[in-house]
Design brief:
The structure is a homodimer.
Chain A lengths: L16 H17 L6 H7 L4 H8 L2 H27 L4 H16 L7 H9 L7 H21 L5 H21 L5 H15 L9
Helix pairs in contact in A: 1-4, 4-5, 4-7, 5-7, 5-9, 6-7, 7-8, 8-9
Chain A binds a DNA duplex through helix 1 and helix 3.
DNA sequence: CAGTAACCACACCGGTCGGTATACTGTCAG
DNA sequence: CTGACAGTATACCGACCGGTGTGGTTACTG
């Protein structure tokens, strides 16, 4: 089994060595401390680079934020590829559950939950250049759930995908906000039961 | 049926007229635009009050933030009381579903999702004076779910409460981050199915 | 050799942030 | 009458914010 839905993520842009360091520093600082908390000076200092270089490479803090989220999206997809290669699910149902299993490992030792949810809250402005990356990530996951559900022959794959998404996002946010460390495991169990009880189409798949 | 778990929210403090205006202005501004975006000057201006008065009443922005969240918690509980009085559920199961039904109305026309989740992300610092209010709100909801599940005679009420909480929080966050306007209705349907299929204790309730 | 991209060092900008200081006015209870 | 309290008005603070400008150095490349 493979993932079915194309990730809309643009390929990694070519960066100069200093550009790489800036993006790496920004990624850890933004995720660990929050986007608004971290100033460009702190990023430049952590990357051992002058602010001038930072602005030559990325143009503005907002565009650096967008680059950070695109990078994080690529990292997440690479992580999923690795996880799926390990677990090697053989059915669409197993693929969905593998995505939930991967969530546990993804969150392990992070404490700050989902960088995309956090960014969405911190940026707020709907026209921020990073917003498409954020909603794109969530829409991809939902679309992948739906595609797998359809491939599995489940009835009403759209509704099933919606419910899976709620469990997934609920785990991410409860893990952080409510300090519910067991959240990903709970979500995985809930997803498994959800699939087990979901009605199937009687070979009349469209 | 009534709610079973005591809300840990302190009663509303007595405020001077100017204090009330400050808290009201802060509440709408913080929720609408975000905590970090809104400065104390903007709050003082909106409340038609000098900054001096604001600091005389609340001491610091951080304590004003905590007061805002406590106020929002009280407002939410009053809202729940009203909703439950309207729907008047007669069983613990109906009570749980009424809480999900209330979620739809709570989110209607807000667009910014859950003020507590947002605040948790924006504040980040675990020792912020507002953090106990945030996790307290989430812990109350989970405890209430568990108490109702136990009263209904469901097996493993802790696990059931965890799953209900994930659906609830997932709806809140997907509504905002993924612009999923149907999220609360999806959560309500998922909760109903979850309860319908959940095993019961055979009159051996402790 | 000339040109150019990538970088450094550093100084500077206007604006906003949370928070404080000073001085004065109205109101109301003991 | 007299405080104490709630409030006004205004000016100010240092720190930090995102962002720009100048000028110089290295290294690769046509």
């Amino acid at each position: 089994m493979t993932l079915l839905v194309d990730r809309g993520v643009p390929a990694a842009p070519r960066l100069t060595p200093a550009g790489e360091r800036i993006l790496a520093a920004a990624s850890t600082l933004f995720y660990e401390q929050g986007i608004r908390t971290v100033g460009v000076d702190a990023i430049a200092a952590a990357a051992d680079v002058t602010k001038k270089t930072l602005y030559d490479r990325f143009g503005s803090k907002d565009r650096l934020i967008a680059a950070y989220l695109e990078e994080r999206d690529r990292t997440w997809h690479r992580f999923l590829d690795d996880q799926l290669a390990e677990r090697n699910p053989t059915t669409p149902e197993a693929m969905i559950l593998a995505l939930f299993a991967a969530l546990t490992d993804w969150l392990a030792g992070s404490r700050n939950g989902c960088g995309f949810i956090n960014a969405s809250v911190e940026l707020a402005a709907p026209d921020h250049p990073a917003m498409p990356v954020i909603v794109g990530q969530k829409r991809w996951l939902r679309a992948e759930f739906e595609a797998q559900a359809r491939a599995a022959g489940f009835a009403d794959p759209g509704e099933l995908a919606d419910r899976l998404l709620l469990l997934h996002e609920g785990a991410l946010v409860s893990y952080r906000v409510a300090a519910m460390t067991s959240a990903p495991e709970v979500a995985a169990r809930a997803a498994a039961d959800l699939l087990a009880g979901w009605p199937r189409l009687l070979r009349t798949a469209r």
